[in-house]
Design brief:
- Helices cover 24% and strands 29% of the residues.
- The protein contains 7 helices and 13 strands.
- It starts with a strand and ends in a 12-residue tail after the last strand.
């Protein structure tokens, strides 16, 4: 499945250099209503949800994508006001969780989980696949990652930051296959800036974004190839 990850130019170059992408933790999600922080349930159910959420936060991370790139709002919100890029990934269909933007169904989902006896038996993917309808423009796709076997480092605040490795090889075993990069309308990255972070064996498809004056949607140019120039790969550490 082809998906798009919007990111600033600075962190895009770092992702290419380190060949990895930072995960989002459950307690960092931008919709405060996810996993029922709002007052929809009785105190016992909310307590169960909080216990479950904390357990999941300690065990899993996720990477958030969009199924589209043409909405300029996405570039404004997540790609440094069009100065960043969209990294284009091909992720396995079975790992892709499509978000449902119908919050009225959230209580039904939780009630079904309760009926099953416990949240774990109902499945994490169902519990994190619903967001408030105002987020619909994102057309979000999520990929859940188990933290037990992923790259980890301590950030500037002393917190653990987890990363999923990405691959440019067409038949690699990594879940994240980087297949392209779209430069934002205001992006000042030059082709050689990108090539300088790729290995000599790498080839990456690049497109340049522009705004369609008739629809105000983002379009992209014909793809051209950039060949890497680096002779070694950065090391990643596990904690």
């Amino acid at each position: 499945m082809i998906v798009y990850h919007f990111i600033s130019s600075e962190f895009a170059l770092k992702a290419l250099r380190d060949r990895r992408l930072k995960m989002t933790r459950l307690n960092q999600l931008n919709d405060l209503q996810e996993l029922c922080i709002v007052d929809l349930f009785d105190s016992d159910t909310k307590r169960e949800l909080e216990i479950f959420k904390n357990r999941v936060n300690a065990q899993y991370g996720m990477i958030c994508f969009s199924a589209i790139y043409h909405d300029p709002v996405l570039w404004g919100h997540y790609a440094d006001s069009h100065r960043g890029v969209a990294l284009v990934f091909d992720i396995p269909d079975h790992k892709a969780i499509t978000i449902n933007y119908q919050p009225e169904q959230y209580k039904q989902i939780i009630n079904t989980a309760i009926h099953c006896g416990e949240f774990e038996s109902f499945g994490l993917s169902k519990l994190i696949s619903t967001k408030f309808s105002s987020w619909h423009y994102e057309q979000e796709i999520r990929m859940i990652c188990d933290l037990n076997d992923h790259f980890c480092q301590i950030d500037a605040k002393g917190n653990k930051a987890y990363f999923e490795s990405l691959s440019l090889e067409p038949f690699g075993k990594d879940a994240l296959k980087l297949v392209g990069l779209i430069r934002g309308v205001r992006c000042d990255l030059k082709p050689m800036d990108i090539a300088g972070e790729l290995l000599a064996a790498d080839t990456l498809s690049i497109q340049d974004a522009s705004i369609d004056s008739s629809t105000f949607q983002i379009t992209s140019s014909n793809a051209y190839l950039i060949h890497g120039v680096r002779s070694f790969s950065a090391c990643c550490f596990r904690v």
